[in-house]
Amino acid sequence: MPSNIEAACRFAIEHAKKQEREMITTDDLLLGCLRSISQFGIAEIGPWSIDLEALGFDWLAIGEEKRHKVTYSQQVVDVLDHATRIARSSESSGVRVQDLLVAFAAHDNGLMGLLKKQYCFTNAQWRASLAASTTPLKERPPAVSETEEAARTQQREYLTPEEAAEVLAIHVQTLRVHVRSGKLPALRLAGERAIRIRRSDLEKIFEPAMQAAD
User: Fold this and answer.
1) Architecture of the 5-133 domain
2) Start-end ranges of CATH 1.10.1660.10 in the chain?
3) Residue 86's CB: how many other CB atoms inside 10 A?
């Protein structure tokens, strides 16, 4: 099963735009996840073959992005953060589509509720099927290397979105929501799309939460 969570989020964004909505919902995100692992509009998870067309998802139209802006709903942010906690519990090197799909397991409303009724599976059966489809994790680098990398990150004043999200123990998409809303200042590298976040801005804005975590 592919693990490109960025593709899943991109599909969710494009689906919301195609529906001419300004808010990305959890149903958009779930459809995005299914689209990212699908072949010819069919997402295979365990014994279930989920037909995206039957769900009203035009998988061939993805890529025809509309030109208006959309933002994540709070419910989507919560799911992304839940997926981050799931990934950490399995000591994964990053959040995968599997983790995001597992985060939907307890949902009984919306699209997930519809899938449970249509395919007759439970929360546990969904998680078990995703666990069986997960490819073995690559060997993790030695702990000393991780410690050294963390130390180097702490010394840098300008952080990538991924590094800033790691500092705050949130998903990178959650952090991007704060950047887009203007709550968190970000700088763009000259002539490039990449952005950097000043550590002083990060610590200033999120200081109460960071102190609470300590």
Assistant:
1) Orthogonal Bundle (1.10)
2) 143-213
3) 20
Distance CA 70, CA 78 (A): 17
pLDDT digits (tens, 9 = 90+) for 95-144: 888 889 999 999 999 999 999 999 999 999 999 988 886 544 333 344 44
Strands 23-24 and 195-198, bridge-based pairing: unpaired
pTM over 0.70: no
End-to-end CA distance of the chain: 36
Helix/strand/coil for 168: helix
Per-residue pLDDT reduced to its tens digit, 42-83: 999 988 999 998 888 777 776 555 566 788 889 999 998 898
| Other CB atoms within 10 A of residue 138 CB | 8
Q: d(Cα 143, Cα 161) in Å, to the nearest integer?
A: 23
171/166 Cα distance (integer angstroms): 8
Long-range contacts of 136-142 (CB under 8 A, 24+ apart): 137/90, 137/91, 137/92, 137/93, 138/93, 140/91, 140/93
Please give the class, per CATH, of domain 143-213. Answer: mainly alpha
Task: Report how far residue 27's alpha carbon sits from residue 187's, in angstroms, rounded to the nearest whole number.
Answer: 32
